[in-house]
Amino acid sequence: MLKRASLLLGLLTLAGCEEPVTLAKVCKETPGFCFDLNKDSHCKDERAEVILKRYSEYKEPTDENKYQLLKEFETYNQCITLAAKIEHIKLKAKKTSRIDGQLTSIKEMTRLYQDTIDTNHPGLLYYHWSRNNNQGALNKLLAIEDDPSVTQSAEMQFFLASYYIKFDDEKTIDLLYKTLELNQKGRIPNPEVYTSLISLFYKHDKYKHAYIFSKVAQMSGIENIDLFEIEQELLSTGKNLSGLDSLAEQTYQQVLEGEFVSPREF
Q1: 22 and 11 Cβ atoms separated by less than 8 Å
Q2: Of 60, 51, 63, 68, which Cα lies nearest the Cα of 16?
Q3: Which residue has the higher pLDDT, 164 or 1?
Q4: pTM score over 0.90
Q5: Per residue in 128-164, is it b (16+ CB within 10 Å) or e — as a string?
């Protein structure tokens, strides 16, 4: 929320800069970073993020800045692609502007992929594999999965979990636990962390664990969590649901406070 609020004010302090840089300043200094995106109010926050990240990459074209820009362009592309399908009866130019933004995002994502084809950056390696099916990138990522750049990143632990979930349930659970352990205070983890844990625990008849993380998922705002079958399994063995509810609340608070500790067991 704080991040979005700062965008609404049009102000963000770029990493490595002593003075805050406004969107207006970026657009004045480097108008090309703004004019080839949509001009209307659709995808306002996503557009602002792209502009600021473009400026960062322009100032420091590191793999990390390219990675952050790639992620923002992907988010912007998803938003503006939907917006481009919306017909504006009175002003056709607005739809054209959205299509321009859509085309720009595709062009820039292609450029970033090409610029980083030989990267060793874990996030970029994951993107090259997951988006372009680059097996070489996957092999490089797996070769550094014990590196601190991977083991100390909640994002990378989740990315690895999305790979291992296809064939190694135990390792996937460990990685998902580690993702929660590394979650920063005040941040809500990717909903798939919880839904994956629920599915895996239910698959292996770990109904207590499945129940706890189902409740945590609900507390995190995830909808369509069906507890009926899990509850029936627990009640049939005489489990106390109120006690599990307390554990779920405790787990939820630990994750939000950045204090979750993985039980490291399957």
Answers
A1: yes
A2: 60
A3: 164
A4: no
A5: bbeeeebeebbebbeebbeeeebeebbebbbbbbbbb
